[in-house]
Fold this protein.
Amino acid sequence: MKNDLSLIVGKNNCGKTSVLSVLEKIFNKNSNRNLVWEDINLNHRREIFENIKRVSDIPDSELSSILGINLQIWIQYSELDSYQNIQGFMMDLNPENNFIILEFSYIIPTQKLREISSLTCDFADDFSKFESFMKKDLNKFFEIQIYSRGYNPITQEMTEEKSDLDEMKDVHKIIKVRGISASREVSNKENNHSLSKTSNRFYKLNNGEEINSNANNLLQSAILKADETLTRAYSGDDSVEGIFTSVFERVKRFGGNDSEAELAIHSSLSEKDILSNNTTLYYKHDDSLLPETYNGLGYLNLYGIIFEIETLMADIKNEPADINLIYIEEPESHTHPQLQYIFIKNIKDLLKEHNDELKESGDFSCIQTLITTHSSHIVSDCNFDDLIYFKRDAGTVISKVFNSLKEEYGKDQLGYKFVKQYLTLNNSELFFADKVICIEGDTERILLPTIMQKVDISNPHNQSSMIMPLLSQNISIIETGAHSHVFRKLFDFLGIKVLIITDIDPANKMKIIA
């Protein structure tokens, strides 16, 4: 990951959300860290099933735990960082070693294997029944084990050395994860006020400390005046009867004229009480005020993300970790391309401002951000050095950093620069394609969709057919002119199939006279 912002890109169902889900469950302090069966890789579920079937045939001395999920976090530190929270995770005192490795393993311990085998023996060969069983009782059998792992600075690899960690609270001092999920509350229904609710949370987390002092003084003065007015309305005075005056008079019957029986109700408003249920966000249009629900979903989504970021930052300032990881999932929801460009151009500056504020306060904490996206518009306007590419391959997920493509081009840095610039200007959609057709120019671009349609018509698709219609496939068509060969390493990097359509240009033999 980059120190400030990393962008995870890839097609649907390639593991982007799964990564965030695992991070959230382990590193979010408010998470119960409970797994669900669906969190485990599809192929690995079958392996667990097969391993459980064999448990009854294995002697106790040879029985070993079964792994469900394994997560390793590599954290690099320098002399500029505070060692206060990480020193307990250091495996040696080698000055060349500037990594700590945290490993989290969800396992079925050996003592639970016999129990599962016994409970599932009646359907030992039925995988679907086994899955139903595990979905109900997964956390009864799985447990998390946390280790600090050794690191070899010479080979730059993890070693077999490990130390058990008992307290998750010590891990939370090093890293915490907070996020804005794709299923965030964004709605323009009349009874929904998601932005108003977020603004309330923002104030609660700030406790008024980060609010402009003049504005805060104005708020306190208004509350004091409101308290005086409400107290007079509740209890009354010499000139006016209050709402509860008649009740107080009846109470006196039971307490006589003793001053100890004198009752009064005083208003005690607080900023939090006022903001919790009595504030509504409006949009100003000319001289009129419109409720937040009257705005489009795109703007609601964008404003909501900014409010959520500010709220998360307030939470970080209250309870910072050494590394504060924020994720934003699919910020492009409901927004048109221009809004997406605005978002990615400005988000880095916003995050930098908050990082700088932490540093100015003398805090050693840092903020790192992960953004997942399907938007070619966001990708085209980002820094390609920030990209992490996810791709499904034979039941597993492969991740690559875009920077590694530079190494693939080797000495051909002009070719790498050309491809990088081309992606920025034209075809970032390649990151989300299964296949690509390279063409030379406008003629092919105009004709090819029609040709593909004719092919689909002449080969009608039906349920027994194994071939999907061309227009239903995830195919990108890009104009590469006579430079398709320059893109070969990019296509290999992305792992996508390529068809190159090129002109058969006539070649004249030329006689060279020395």
Observations:
- The radius of gyration is 31 Å.
- The chain has three domains: 5-183+323-379, 194-295, 402-500.
